Amino acid sequence: MVPPNDEKGSRDNVIEQISCAVKDAWDDNIDGIGIGTPGVVDNNGAVFESPNLPQWHNFNVKEVFEKRFNKNVVVENDANSITWGEYLFGAGKGTRTIVCLTLGTGLGGGVVINGKLLRGSIYSAAELGHMPVNYKGRKCGCGARGCIEAYVGRDYIIKSAIRKIKMGKKSILTEMVRNLSELTPKIISDAYQKGDKLAEEVWIEMATALGAFLAGLVNILNPDRIILAGGIAQAGEILFQTVRKTIQERSMKVLSQTVEVVPAGLGNDAGIVSGAALVFQQ
Ligand SMILES: [Zn+2]
Asked: How close is the Cα of 5 to the center of ligand 1, in Å?
Protein backbone atom coordinates (compact mmCIF):
# COMPACT_ATOMS: atom_id res chain seq x y z
CA MET A 1 0.00 0.00 0.00
CA VAL A 2 1.00 3.66 -0.09
CA PRO A 3 0.83 5.94 2.92
CA PRO A 4 -2.26 8.14 2.65
CA ASN A 5 -1.48 11.69 1.48
CA ASP A 6 -3.87 13.18 3.95
CA GLU A 7 -3.65 11.32 7.21
CA LYS A 8 -6.71 13.06 8.55
CA GLY A 9 -8.52 12.25 5.31
CA SER A 10 -12.03 10.88 5.30
CA ARG A 11 -12.52 7.14 5.30
CA ASP A 12 -13.67 7.17 1.67
CA ASN A 13 -10.64 9.19 0.56
CA VAL A 14 -8.20 6.79 2.16
CA ILE A 15 -10.04 3.79 0.69
CA GLU A 16 -9.82 5.40 -2.75
CA GLN A 17 -6.08 6.12 -2.37
CA ILE A 18 -5.38 2.54 -1.36
CA SER A 19 -7.57 1.25 -4.21
CA CYS A 20 -5.57 3.35 -6.71
CA ALA A 21 -2.31 1.87 -5.39
CA VAL A 22 -3.73 -1.66 -5.66
CA LYS A 23 -4.90 -1.03 -9.24
CA ASP A 24 -1.46 0.37 -10.16
CA ALA A 25 0.22 -2.83 -9.01
CA TRP A 26 -2.55 -5.14 -10.22
CA ASP A 27 -1.89 -8.48 -11.83
CA ASP A 28 -4.60 -11.16 -12.07
CA ASN A 29 -2.20 -13.70 -10.58
CA ILE A 30 -1.44 -11.89 -7.32
CA ASP A 31 -1.85 -13.99 -4.18
CA GLY A 32 -3.43 -11.22 -2.18
CA ILE A 33 -3.25 -7.68 -0.85
CA GLY A 34 -1.38 -6.62 2.29
CA ILE A 35 -2.29 -3.45 4.17
CA GLY A 36 -0.27 -1.94 7.02
CA THR A 37 -2.25 0.63 8.99
CA PRO A 38 -1.79 2.71 12.13
CA GLY A 39 -3.90 1.58 15.05
CA VAL A 40 -4.78 -1.66 16.77
CA VAL A 41 -5.88 -4.40 14.36
CA ASP A 42 -7.83 -7.48 15.45
CA ASN A 43 -7.67 -11.01 14.05
CA ASN A 44 -10.52 -10.27 11.62
CA GLY A 45 -8.86 -7.27 10.00
CA ALA A 46 -10.82 -4.60 11.88
CA VAL A 47 -9.00 -1.45 13.01
CA PHE A 48 -9.43 0.22 16.42
CA GLU A 49 -7.83 3.25 18.08
CA SER A 50 -6.06 4.70 15.07
CA PRO A 51 -5.17 8.23 16.26
CA ASN A 52 -4.09 9.52 12.81
CA LEU A 53 -7.08 8.02 11.02
CA PRO A 54 -9.93 8.59 13.48
CA GLN A 55 -12.56 7.51 10.97
CA TRP A 56 -10.99 4.05 10.82
CA HIS A 57 -11.97 3.35 14.42
CA ASN A 58 -14.03 0.17 14.61
CA PHE A 59 -13.80 -0.34 10.86
CA ASN A 60 -13.28 -3.67 9.09
CA VAL A 61 -10.65 -2.81 6.47
CA LYS A 62 -10.16 -6.42 5.37
CA GLU A 63 -13.85 -6.91 4.54
CA VAL A 64 -14.07 -3.71 2.46
CA PHE A 65 -11.08 -4.57 0.27
CA GLU A 66 -11.93 -8.25 -0.09
CA LYS A 67 -15.34 -7.25 -1.45
CA ARG A 68 -13.84 -4.70 -3.77
CA PHE A 69 -11.00 -6.81 -5.24
CA ASN A 70 -12.13 -10.39 -4.64
CA LYS A 71 -8.66 -11.37 -3.33
CA ASN A 72 -7.32 -12.45 0.04
CA VAL A 73 -6.58 -9.29 2.09
CA VAL A 74 -4.29 -9.22 5.14
CA VAL A 75 -4.49 -6.18 7.43
CA GLU A 76 -1.89 -5.58 10.10
CA ASN A 77 -0.77 -2.80 12.40
CA ASP A 78 1.94 -0.80 10.59
CA ALA A 79 4.73 -1.50 13.11
CA ASN A 80 3.92 -5.23 13.00
CA SER A 81 3.87 -5.01 9.22
CA ILE A 82 7.34 -3.39 9.10
CA THR A 83 8.61 -6.05 11.52
CA TRP A 84 7.35 -8.81 9.26
CA GLY A 85 8.82 -7.12 6.17
CA GLU A 86 12.22 -6.80 7.87
CA TYR A 87 12.00 -10.44 8.96
CA LEU A 88 11.26 -11.80 5.47
CA PHE A 89 13.18 -9.43 3.22
CA GLY A 90 15.25 -7.00 5.33
CA ALA A 91 17.70 -7.06 8.24
CA GLY A 92 15.96 -10.04 9.84
CA LYS A 93 16.53 -12.39 6.90
CA GLY A 94 17.85 -15.78 7.94
CA THR A 95 16.85 -15.47 11.62
CA ARG A 96 14.01 -17.04 13.62
CA THR A 97 13.34 -14.54 16.41
CA ILE A 98 13.60 -10.76 16.11
CA VAL A 99 12.51 -7.57 17.82
CA CYS A 100 12.01 -4.60 15.50
CA LEU A 101 11.66 -1.06 16.87
CA THR A 102 10.66 2.01 14.88
CA LEU A 103 12.12 5.10 16.52
CA GLY A 104 10.33 8.31 15.67
CA THR A 105 7.75 10.57 17.30
CA GLY A 106 6.74 7.51 19.26
CA LEU A 107 8.27 4.09 19.72
CA GLY A 108 6.57 1.39 17.68
CA GLY A 109 7.59 -2.19 17.48
CA GLY A 110 6.91 -5.76 16.64
CA VAL A 111 8.18 -9.20 17.53
CA VAL A 112 8.67 -12.36 15.46
CA ILE A 113 9.10 -15.51 17.56
CA ASN A 114 10.21 -18.75 15.93
CA GLY A 115 9.13 -17.48 12.53
CA LYS A 116 5.71 -16.19 13.59
CA LEU A 117 4.55 -12.64 14.18
CA LEU A 118 3.57 -12.22 17.83
CA ARG A 119 -0.11 -11.30 17.73
CA GLY A 120 -1.40 -12.09 21.20
CA SER A 121 -4.89 -13.24 22.09
CA ILE A 122 -7.17 -11.20 19.83
CA TYR A 123 -5.50 -7.87 19.06
CA SER A 124 -2.02 -6.93 17.88
CA ALA A 125 0.44 -7.60 20.68
CA ALA A 126 3.83 -5.89 20.95
CA GLU A 127 2.85 -2.32 21.79
CA LEU A 128 6.47 -2.11 22.85
CA GLY A 129 6.57 1.68 23.27
CA HIS A 130 4.11 1.44 26.11
CA MET A 131 6.09 -0.88 28.32
CA PRO A 132 6.44 0.98 31.65
CA VAL A 133 10.09 1.27 32.66
CA ASN A 134 9.50 3.58 35.61
CA TYR A 135 6.26 3.13 37.49
CA LYS A 136 6.56 6.59 39.04
CA GLY A 137 7.85 8.08 35.79
CA ARG A 138 6.67 10.84 33.54
CA LYS A 139 3.27 10.87 31.82
CA CYS A 140 3.11 9.21 28.42
CA GLY A 141 0.90 10.14 25.47
CA CYS A 142 -1.11 6.94 26.03
CA GLY A 143 -2.27 8.21 29.43
CA ALA A 144 -0.11 5.84 31.48
CA ARG A 145 3.08 6.68 33.35
CA GLY A 146 6.75 5.91 32.75
CA CYS A 147 6.42 4.17 29.35
CA ILE A 148 9.73 3.72 27.49
CA GLU A 149 8.34 5.93 24.69
CA ALA A 150 8.39 8.88 27.09
CA TYR A 151 12.19 8.42 27.46
CA VAL A 152 13.27 7.79 23.88
CA GLY A 153 10.63 9.44 21.65
CA ARG A 154 11.40 12.49 19.52
CA ASP A 155 9.98 15.07 21.96
CA TYR A 156 11.93 13.61 24.84
CA ILE A 157 15.24 13.88 22.97
CA ILE A 158 14.57 17.53 22.17
CA LYS A 159 13.37 18.38 25.69
CA SER A 160 16.42 16.69 27.17
CA ALA A 161 18.74 18.88 25.07
CA ILE A 162 16.79 22.04 25.98
CA ARG A 163 16.88 21.16 29.69
CA LYS A 164 20.66 20.77 29.62
CA ILE A 165 21.13 24.06 27.77
CA LYS A 166 18.90 25.84 30.30
CA MET A 167 21.01 24.37 33.11
CA GLY A 168 23.82 26.44 31.64
CA LYS A 169 25.77 23.74 29.80
CA LYS A 170 27.66 24.99 26.76
CA SER A 171 26.67 23.66 23.35
CA ILE A 172 26.98 24.58 19.70
CA LEU A 173 23.25 23.78 19.45
CA THR A 174 22.56 27.37 20.51
CA GLU A 175 24.40 28.55 17.39
CA MET A 176 22.78 25.97 15.10
CA VAL A 177 19.20 27.23 15.60
CA ARG A 178 17.75 30.70 16.07
CA ASN A 179 15.27 29.43 18.61
CA LEU A 180 15.49 26.27 20.73
CA SER A 181 11.98 25.34 19.58
CA GLU A 182 13.54 24.63 16.15
CA LEU A 183 15.69 21.78 17.53
CA THR A 184 15.23 18.33 15.98
CA PRO A 185 16.90 14.98 16.67
CA LYS A 186 18.71 15.40 13.32
CA ILE A 187 20.24 18.72 14.45
CA ILE A 188 21.26 17.16 17.79
CA SER A 189 22.83 14.32 15.85
CA ASP A 190 24.71 16.78 13.60
CA ALA A 191 25.99 18.61 16.71
CA TYR A 192 27.27 15.30 18.09
CA GLN A 193 29.10 14.63 14.82
CA LYS A 194 30.80 17.99 15.26
CA GLY A 195 32.04 16.92 18.68
CA ASP A 196 29.41 18.64 20.87
CA LYS A 197 29.55 17.20 24.42
CA LEU A 198 25.98 18.14 25.35
CA ALA A 199 24.61 16.42 22.24
CA GLU A 200 26.70 13.36 23.10
CA GLU A 201 25.18 13.29 26.60
CA VAL A 202 21.65 13.49 25.17
CA TRP A 203 22.27 10.50 22.88
CA ILE A 204 24.01 8.44 25.53
CA GLU A 205 21.15 8.97 28.01
CA MET A 206 18.51 8.15 25.40
CA ALA A 207 20.37 5.08 24.13
CA THR A 208 21.04 3.83 27.66
CA ALA A 209 17.31 3.99 28.44
CA LEU A 210 16.60 2.16 25.18
CA GLY A 211 19.32 -0.40 25.87
CA ALA A 212 18.03 -1.10 29.38
CA PHE A 213 14.53 -1.65 28.00
CA LEU A 214 15.95 -3.94 25.28
CA ALA A 215 17.98 -5.85 27.88
CA GLY A 216 14.63 -6.78 29.44
CA LEU A 217 13.31 -7.95 26.07
CA VAL A 218 16.50 -9.95 25.48
CA ASN A 219 15.89 -11.74 28.78
CA ILE A 220 12.26 -12.45 27.91
CA LEU A 221 12.51 -13.31 24.20
CA ASN A 222 16.12 -14.38 23.55
CA PRO A 223 16.07 -12.81 20.06
CA ASP A 224 18.65 -13.53 17.34
CA ARG A 225 18.56 -9.94 16.23
CA ILE A 226 17.20 -6.52 17.28
CA ILE A 227 16.47 -4.19 14.38
CA LEU A 228 16.31 -0.42 14.88
CA ALA A 229 14.26 1.35 12.19
CA GLY A 230 12.80 4.85 11.78
CA GLY A 231 14.28 8.34 11.42
CA ILE A 232 15.85 8.52 14.86
CA ALA A 233 17.74 5.25 14.30
CA GLN A 234 19.82 7.30 11.84
CA ALA A 235 21.53 8.98 14.78
CA GLY A 236 24.13 6.35 13.92
CA GLU A 237 27.01 4.72 15.79
CA ILE A 238 26.61 6.52 19.12
CA LEU A 239 23.09 5.10 19.36
CA PHE A 240 23.98 1.57 18.27
CA GLN A 241 27.18 1.36 20.34
CA THR A 242 25.46 2.54 23.51
CA VAL A 243 22.48 0.23 23.03
CA ARG A 244 24.80 -2.76 22.44
CA LYS A 245 26.95 -1.91 25.47
CA THR A 246 23.91 -1.49 27.73
CA ILE A 247 22.41 -4.80 26.61
CA GLN A 248 25.75 -6.52 27.35
CA GLU A 249 25.84 -4.97 30.81
CA ARG A 250 22.23 -5.52 31.79
CA SER A 251 20.85 -8.71 30.29
CA MET A 252 21.63 -12.33 31.17
CA LYS A 253 25.17 -13.00 30.04
CA VAL A 254 24.51 -16.04 27.91
CA LEU A 255 21.57 -14.36 26.10
CA SER A 256 23.42 -11.09 25.49
CA GLN A 257 26.34 -12.88 23.82
CA THR A 258 24.47 -13.90 20.70
CA VAL A 259 22.04 -11.03 20.11
CA GLU A 260 22.90 -8.59 17.31
CA VAL A 261 21.66 -4.98 17.17
CA VAL A 262 21.45 -3.79 13.56
CA PRO A 263 19.89 -1.00 11.47
CA ALA A 264 16.80 -1.74 9.36
CA GLY A 265 17.38 -3.13 5.88
CA LEU A 266 14.36 -2.03 3.85
CA GLY A 267 14.88 1.75 3.70
CA ASN A 268 12.35 3.90 1.86
CA ASP A 269 10.46 0.94 0.42
CA ALA A 270 9.75 -0.51 3.87
CA GLY A 271 6.00 0.28 3.76
CA ILE A 272 5.45 -1.25 0.31
CA VAL A 273 7.65 -4.32 0.77
CA SER A 274 6.14 -4.97 4.20
CA GLY A 275 2.58 -4.72 2.88
CA ALA A 276 3.44 -7.35 0.28
CA ALA A 277 5.22 -9.50 2.89
CA LEU A 278 1.98 -9.73 4.92
CA VAL A 279 0.43 -11.90 2.23
CA PHE A 280 3.15 -14.52 2.73
CA GLN A 281 2.40 -15.07 6.36
CA GLN A 282 0.72 -18.42 6.73
ZN1 LIG B 1 2.51 4.95 27.00
From this structure: 27
Rounded to whole angstroms, the Cα distance separating 274 from 266 reads 9
How far is CA 51 from its chain centroid?
Answer: 15
Find the mean pLDDT for residues 141-160: 93
Fold of the 93-264 domain: Nucleotidyltransferase; domain 5 (3.30.420)
Backbone phi, then psi, for 98, in 5-degree steps?
-135, 155
β-partners of residue 137 are none
**Largest pairwise CA distance in the chain:** 64
Ligand 1 centroid to 125 CA: how many Å?
14
- Look up the pTM and report it: 0.89
Q: Which CATH number fits domain 11-81+270-279: 3.30.70.100, 2.40.50.200, 3.40.190.10, 3.30.420.40?
A: 3.30.420.40
